[in-house]
Amino acid sequence: MVYAAILGYGTVGSGVAEVLSENxxxxxxxxxxxxxxxxxxxxxxxxxxxxxxKVVHDFNIILEDPQVxxxxxxxxxxxxxxxFSKKAxxxxxxxxxxxxxxxADHGPELLRxxxxxxxxxLFEASVGGGIPIIxxxxxxxxxxxxxxxxxxxxxxTNYILTRMKQxxxxxxxxxxxxxxxxxxxxxxxxxxxxxxAGRKIAILSSLMLGKTVRYEDIYxxxxxxxxxxxxxxxxxxxxxxxxxxxxxLQEEGCFVMVAPFMISNHNPLHGISDVFNAVFVxxxxxxxxxxxxxxxxxxxxxxxxxxxxxxCARHQGKTVMCLWDEEEVKPLDYMxxxxxxxxxxDRGLLDEEKAREAFGEIKIIKLEEKPKEYGFVTPLMQExxxxxxxxxxxxxxxxxxxxx
Length: 404
Ligand code: HSE
Fold this sequence. Notes:
Radius of gyration: 23 Å
Bound molecules: L-homoserine
Helix content: 25-40%
Largest sheet: 10 strands, mixed
Shape: elongated
Low-confidence stretches: none
């Protein structure tokens, strides 16, 4: 019997207990022995809950129980999750987590502690919720040199952009509706400003490079400036707008960025709708592969945590290899990346002639219902060249990067 403890009995933590109970027989066959939840740590009590008798309020009870070998950290946030995870690993207890903030901030250190104490720090649920992506990067693609990752890694923003496209609504209206339905947080900043996707692409980039990419070093732009007009122009260009987390390895280094992109209808990420997530990976032998599914939610995320528990049961006393060193690597300056841009312009301030003079050979798109403005697509240019021109003219209402 493997005894586990759950830290935090919220949405994901209670989901972990549910998955372990609902699928107990299959999990026992796959793990090689039964997995039982011995303790649940939470500040609250849960009278009437089937696991009410397992609830404790003191972490030391779990730490000092030699029977407990696996800890599911589903608390979220940095503290006390960091202190508890560290203490558990130092005591040789494996930790399985859904906590992307903690993994992005302290992942390589916790992985080292796990290695030094013959246990595991596993984090499948930290990126893409229930979608297997950490394990494919760590196990399945070990014969590959991975050189590109492009993901829709945030369900809230993908839901908002999907509704803006389908209903022709503006950002504020859809955000309010998403909050009313409980999809978006009351404080949606981490999602809509791209910070959540930034942490997730920092984790995936670190696994791609085997070194640490810090999310603070990643250029991040959210979706708050995206308008309903952008979707009208995108439609005319056979495109749509998606918040992409991109990591591209080049000879000189790695470009990492989170930003809205206008992607073509042929892009495999074009059809990823609502709260779904997808990760598109390019590697040198396999070529393209894609991982798709529910990127958030109680049972999908809990299922990923439990898959890590099964991994721990299969590797007791042994550390599963994960190539992610503490050495930091800085992403390349995004200003040096080259791409095309979609631009919206105020006709009164920047007419088509002036736009052509400033940007070169541009492709114009007009909306019949908006005669005072127009859109255009620039030629391929470096971000810094685009910014230089943008600051030298008046009348630019917005811009979105293009990606095929
Ligand atoms: N807020 C996140 C999202 C939850 O919307 O994708 C999953 O990490």
